[in-house]
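Priority: medium. Attachment 1 of 2:
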């Protein structure tokens, strides 16, 4: 390791002291918002990852896409994404071989984002999911390494010898630890934006002065001047994560929003599922826009879900039972879930980050652990929306159904590559999907 490498990695974004941490301005000597790896520099907006999940699969006849670009045709389930065809990949035929062993909801969901073997018989063991692998590698760049959201409580029971925790969690911090799921919008909001350092500007400044002096010794004259100017302005800084402006000088990439632009949600869980999902979607967007987090999973419901949808006039049957049909009401529920994806995509696409939009700088994966409610997991429903920082060409249908080596984990390797993480092997895959 180079002599200053440890110093750069530990100090380059935040000045820290007892009970305080404040963000650094853009400096020539070190990046603030992005690591300069493989040609990406600190002036370029980072790539974000969002994983959205809906349980129980989709209408068996209406999950499809064909054609390219503006001419791409979508099945009725995907109709809400009509405006985003040119920024979307429809991926057919990928699957997790280990998920086929139990042929029930839990055994098909617990390893959706890892491809790992699942333990049964009272033991809980899966694999670290892609979002948490990236959070461990990439999440140190932000206040919140990863945000794990949900709209339905986890189920601690057992079904056919498999823990229902598998069907309640898609994010796993380790093979034996499902990542804690935040289902309360107010608490998710607080985790992103609550400043625990307090509002005493003078005391905050005093707390970090020693760290600032240490940093100052290792940077150039121009940066020393910038740092001095920045410290003088700290008294006006109220948020812990903020990149202060400096008289029009080049600052590198900065988030387009430095504080939330919506009110804090009310305490508790919204009784209206549509309101609950929309709040979580808004929090996801805010987390990306403020660069408070770059990795989020949003589990819209559980596999084997008990949600009902009175907002759609579908209150007579829970989601899981409804999934065993191909009725008009099942299609209506499917489209409701896809409308959440479209809502997030539209908000991200309206936020400009230099030459690209926030959607262009995001990979938004939407999937379920089965294609249909009949537990069809030999091919998974998968779409990828967003440009991955300009590295993903949308408007395409990729079909792997008749091809060898169609592991879902090959897609994960490709996605990790867009975020400069290359483990060589992930789950049951050792090579990426070249087409992604």
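Attachment 2 of 2:
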């Amino acid at each position: 390791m180079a002599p200053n490498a440890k110093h750069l990695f530990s100090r380059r974004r935040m000045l820290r002291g007892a009970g305080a941490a404040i963000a650094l301005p853009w400096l020539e000597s070190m990046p603030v918002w992005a690591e300069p790896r493989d040609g990406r520099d600190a002036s370029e907006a980072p790539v974000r990852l969002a994983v959205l999940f809906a349980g129980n699969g989709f209408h068996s006849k209406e999950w499809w896409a064909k054609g390219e670009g503006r001419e791409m045709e979508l099945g009725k389930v995907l109709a809400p994404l009509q405006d985003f065809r040119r920024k979307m990949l429809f991926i057919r035929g990928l699957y997790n071989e280990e998920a086929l062993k139990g042929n029930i909801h839990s055994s098909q969901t617990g390893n959706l984002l890892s491809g790992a073997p699942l333990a049964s018989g009272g033991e809980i063991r899966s694999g670290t999911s892609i979002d948490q692998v990236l959070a461990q590698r990439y999440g140190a760049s932000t206040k919140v390494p990863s945000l794990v959201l949900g709209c339905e409580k986890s189920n601690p029971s057992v079904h056919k010898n498999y823990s229902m925790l598998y069907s309640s969690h898609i994010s796993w911090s380790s093979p034996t630890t499902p990542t804690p799921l935040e289902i309360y919008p107010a608490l998710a909001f607080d985790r992103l934006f609550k400043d625990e350092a307090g509002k005493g500007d003078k005391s905050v400044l005093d707390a970090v002065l020693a760290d600032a002096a240490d940093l100052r010794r290792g940077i150039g004259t121009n940066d020393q001047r910038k740092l001095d100017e920045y410290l003088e302005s700290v008294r006006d800084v109220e948020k812990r994560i903020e990149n202060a402006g400096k008289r029009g000088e080049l600052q590198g990439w900065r988030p387009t929003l430095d504080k939330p632009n919506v009110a804090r949600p009310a305490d508790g869980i919204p009784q209206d599922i549509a309101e609950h999902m929309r709040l979580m979607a808004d929090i996801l967007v805010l987390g990306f826009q403020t660069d408070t987090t770059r990795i989020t999973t949003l589990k819209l419901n559980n596999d084997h879900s008990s949600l009902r949808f009175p907002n759609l006039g579908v209150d007579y049957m829970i989601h899981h039972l409804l999934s065993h049909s191909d009725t008009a009401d099942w299609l209506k529920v499917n489209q409701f879930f896809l409308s959440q994806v479209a809502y997030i995509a539209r908000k991200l696409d309206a936020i400009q980050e230099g030459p690209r939009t926030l959607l262009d700088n995001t990979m938004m994966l939407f999937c379920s652990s089965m294609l249909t409610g009949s537990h069809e997991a030999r091919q998974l429903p998968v779409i990828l929306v967003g440009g991955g920082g300009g590295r993903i060409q949308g408007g395409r249908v990729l079909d792997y159904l008749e091809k060898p080596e169609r592991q879902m984990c090959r897609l994960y390797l490709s996605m990790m590559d867009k975020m400069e993480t290359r483990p060589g092997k992930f789950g049951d895959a050792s090579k990426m999907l070249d087409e992604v």
